[in-house]
Amino acid sequence: MSKESLSRVPVKFLVEEVGEAEGELIRYFAPRTVDAIVKLLPVEGRAARWKEEIYFEIPVKMGEEKAKSTVENGAIAYWPMGNAFCIFYGESQPYSPVNVMGKVTKNLHLFEQIGSGKKIRVEKI
Length: 125
Fold this sequence. Notes:
This protein is mainly beta.
């Protein structure tokens, strides 16, 4: 049974040979962006690293929506410039503004261990 509500969508991150983490997408942070990505789930890609961020390209093209140039540790975001799903696991900030969509709620340290090229899958719980 899905724990999805109208405002929060729980998700799981599965990283090949590394492990799992959990998070939630929060609709009021960026409603159009979250809805577009939730419709696409599950989605997967190959990890790229930038400072203390993991990101991967997804087949969603969205503009900025409540975009922020600073994010909190653990933020889940969409990067309009790169059409990418992003997870910020440290103190670094985005290269350019991102649409913050949620946060990692369990096992954030997992993202420190992900090397470039590892497969990441995001799916609803």
